[in-house]
Amino acid sequence: MNNTLYIIGVGPGDPGLLTFKAHSLLESCTVIATPKGSKNGNSTALSIIQHTVELEDKTILELYFPMKKVRMGTKPDREVEKGWQEAAQAVLANLDAGKDVAFPTLGDPAIYSTGYYLYQMIIGLRPDVRVVFVPGISALSSCSATIATPICLGDDRLAVIPATFSSDKLRETLLDFDTIVLMKVHKVINELKELLAELDLLDCAVLVEKTGMTDEKIYTDLSKLTEPIHYFSTIIVRKHFL
Ligand SMILES: C[S@@+](CC[C@H](N)C(=O)[O-])C[C@H]1O[C@@H](n2cnc3c(N)ncnc32)[C@H](O)[C@@H]1O
Fold first, then answer.
1. Ligand 1 atom index nearest CA of 105
2. Mind spelling out the 3-state secondary structure of 85-123?
3. Which atom of ligand 1 is nearest to the CA of 211?
4. Are 158 and 177 in contact (CB under 8 A)?
5. pLDDT for 51-62, tens place per residue?
6. Percent of the chain having pLDDT more than 70?
7. What is the pLDDT of residue 74?
8. 166 CA to middle of ligand 1, Å?
9. Cα 134 from chain centroid?
10. What domains can be seen in the chain, in order of their start residue?
11. Are 29 and 10 in contact (CB under 8 A)?
């Protein structure tokens, strides 16, 4: 191993859902690059690994990724692009110094992860850099396990969608698919409850907060949900069980 960037899925929060491969790579890399959504905030990915990975002798490289909407097919906002560029430069400096860098990311890197923004930026600057992706357990798999409900079976069609974008797109998706996984629901929960009620889908929707964690919660009747919910919350809408 040398001069390699590992983009590592660390699961949705339960340390037991960190894979052996993720754990062993995190232990062997000397630099851990951690994504943060705000300059003074904490990295959720780092908080997931801190009790299971020995971090004492490692360099922790904090990377700031502004939490703003990114629409595929359009150029990102200037602050967002600047954040990605600076993050890429900081990682490249460590790779050029002969170090291996691990970039832990919540859940699986394939699903709404900053890991791919970093990857695109790095490869755009330096196509020769070696980048390895390590899959992790996604929140959607863990939420499905928590509520013992399949995500898709037989000829089911599945959609995974962030709830923070256009309500027209959400409505269309909720109508068209058999199972719909709604992520990033915490800030728009009231609007979502209204939309699900309007489409007569409240009975098919279950919200899982902090899946696999000690304070995990399951809400089967969203109409009764009144308290604020955590960022780690996902709704599974499944129109038929079997
Ligand atoms: C930026 S996305 C990252 C998804 C992640 N890459 C994955 O594979 O699960 C963040 C969203 O994932 C979901 N999420 C992450 N951890 C969760 C958890 N422990 N319980 C429930 N949902 C979670 C929430 O919907 C949250 O808003």
1. 6
2. HHHHHHHHHHHHCCCCEEEEECECCCCCCHHHHHHHHHH
3. 20
4. yes
5. 899 999 999 999
6. 97
7. 76
8. 19
9. 14
10. 4-134 (3.40.1010.10), 139-238 (3.30.950.10)
11. no
| Mean per-residue pLDDT of the chain | 92
163 CA from centroid of ligand 1 (Å): 12
Q: Which two tokens stand for residue 27?
A: 């232990």
| pLDDT of res. 65 | 78
- Of 18, 112, 117, 209, the residue with max ligand 1 atoms within 8 A of its CB, to mutate for a pocket test, comes to 112
Model confidence at 71: pLDDT above 90: no
Confidence class of residue 76 from pLDDT cuts 50, 70 and 90? Answer: confident
User: Which ligand 1 atom lies nearest to the CA of residue 109?
Assistant: 6
Helix (H, G, I), strand (E, B) or coil at 239: coil
Max CA-CA distance within the chain? 57
Angle between helices 114-125 and 78-96 (to 10 degrees): 70
- The confidence band for 40, taking pLDDT boundaries of 50, 70 and 90, is low
Would the pLDDT of 126 be above 80? yes
Residue 77, pLDDT score: 79
179-183, strands of its sheet edge to edge: 158-162, 179-183, 233-238, 205-209, 217-219
Q: Is 68 left (phi over 0), alpha (psi -120 to 50) or beta?
A: beta
Looking at residue 242, its pLDDT comes to 64
Residues lining ligand 1, Cβ inside 6 A: 12-13, 106-108, 111-113, 138-139, 143, 183-185, 208, 210-211, 231-234
